[in-house]
């Protein structure tokens, strides 16, 4: 009998420790929408394998609901597959989904995410957007580069009027690049 009374406090402490660990593990998981089962490294990619992924997504939406969670490798993806759900995500809960994912390359090249492209949604991002809208993209600034657009478009039209076959996609990309580079840096790079 003495042996069982000595084990009782140890077993009680062990049981309490296990319950506390389980509670902590349960709390640390984010509340995600339902989704298909996942494998450790590739996630839910196998559910999309096949010739028509949009049909697979439709079938998954029928099974798991209009808003579902997919794990594509290390990235979490939320799929909204009905107009009502998309409206709710994009209008009602837009601030929740406004942040950009973390990418190491963006933080290395973008001053730790301090630029407008990679900064998280918040007061700092709103200030950057306001500066861009008022200073860089104001009608006065846009009009000041009108001569650049006119020169680049006239070069584009001259290259088209030569009569030879052209790749329209490459030509339009070159036009846009030329306008952007000359407006930003003063010359084509």
UniProtKB/TrEMBL annotation:
The record's section on InterPro entries has: Cyt_P450 (IPR001128), Cyt_P450_sf (IPR036396)
Pfam families under this entry?
Answer: p450 (PF00067)
Which Gene Ontology terms cover its molecular function?
heme binding; iron ion binding; monooxygenase activity; oxidoreductase activity, acting on paired donors, with incorporation or reduction of molecular oxygen
In the record, biological process GO terms are: sesquiterpene biosynthetic process
Residue spans crossing the bilayer? 6-25
Q: Which key words are in the record?
A: Heme, Iron, Membrane, Metal-binding, Monooxygenase, Oxidoreductase, Transmembrane, Transmembrane helix
Q: Which SUPFAM superfamilies match?
A: Cytochrome P450
Q: Which family does it belong to?
A: Belongs to the cytochrome P450 family.
The name of this protein is: Uncharacterized protein
* The species this protein was found in: Lactuca saligna
